Amino acid sequence: MSDLPKKYDVIIAGTGLTESILSAALARIGKTVFxxxxxxxxxxxxxSHTLSGLIDxxxxxxxxxxxNDLNKCNNNLKKYYTEIExxxxxxxxxxxxxxxxxxxxxxxxxxxxxVLYSRGELVELLISSDVAKYCEFKMVSQILTxxxxxxxxxxxxxxxxxxKSTKLGMLEKRVMMQFVQACLKEDYHKQLIxxxxxxxxxxxxxxxxxxxxxxxxxxxxxxxxxxxxxxxALKGLDETRKFLSSVGRFGDSPFLFPxxxxxxxxxxxxxxxxxxxxxxxxxxxxxQLTINESNLIKSVKIRxxxxxxxxEHLILDSSYAPLSLYPESVETICRCILITDKSIxxxxxxxxxxxxxxxxxxxxxxxNIYLIETSHASNCSPQxxxxxxxxxxxxxxxxxxxxxxxxxxxxxxTASETENEKPNILFSYFFSHVDSESxxxxxxENESKPTNLHIVSGGKVCLxxxxxxxxxxxxxxxxxxxxxxxxxxxxxxxIILDDNEAVxxxxxxG
Length: 510
Prior knowledge:
It contains 15 helices and 20 strands. With 510 residues, it is α+β, with helices and mostly antiparallel strands.
């Protein structure tokens, strides 16, 4: 610690996705960046854990202590993560815990899983910044839906899949392709929304088109995923266009999933930041902020250290924010991680897939539930094991386990079902955490917040990561209003060395 510089342009606490994008963007334009994390791993709320690593992390959360001063930074994860509960299903195999822990390193379990649209903002940023060279992806090859009869069906996404489908008649196929072509035109809003339907919900718009029932269901619940009356026609068409425009860029599916888990994304941006001079220090956190009379952070004190580090700007993951900025009540997000012995949907090719299923809410007091299933295809689990992620908003104000109870009962085998082809749950993990998007909004409205403190959000209930790219871009523009956000790195052949550097380069090569 004594060898580190004591003054930086930006200090960042937390290696979540938004923080890591900002670190790379700021280091790329020459800003001095000191990037730390309280954990011994990268990713923060977006980390990918081994099975035993997840259990160890759980114990660390449960034993964390609250700060004794509300003006100190929060390092009490029990305030951020709640209702943590995990169980092993020994009824199907008494040795299941031992067997799975022996395979622990072959599991990579995400705390905040999402997929990427092939033409989404994160994919565009990965390509334009050249960060894509650090990561690998797999297609989400199965988009699933539950039809009106309660049966699970694979949604056709490409033109060839549509015309091969036996679930759609010839008329339905033609109607669907006409709608797809209209959505992909530049003036699609004008073509699909007339004056009478401007105030419609997306569901009402689709019904007004008199589409066949199967087509309407697919468009509302599997393509746009906008089943609520609160989802406007404009929002639904935007989501539909985003889905359809992503199909065909890298394959027949519009979605990608990171190989080795979502935690790889943060690490990729951190690698880029380190290349351009950012300094990284794990297992280190901020204890206290020194704020001057102008309500600007002058320096930060590192926990249990005597060192003070000066900075022009401080960026904090919301879980680090001082408790004095926390509102009295916060919204929460419920999550569930299941490890099973088979897929929720058996494909005809008998291959292991990555699958996505959207489950619309039944009533206004319920929440839409997103389900992502990964397999050995993403190198996140051993062969023959499947990881299922469930997440939703906690609108019903229930525990995470209660929010997912009906879905789990519908999709998976229960103890009372002796003969059933449903997957067995081998390991289940439930937890809730603060909805940091709403938390950050309230913190930013707090007049006591220092003007050079930037608080960023973590995982949210949505399908992709584009929110984090927008958030990183917004904060970057506040710090560096006249600079380009994440410019492409220079080609090595275009770098011009001065005389001294050229001599050193020649000596090394010699």
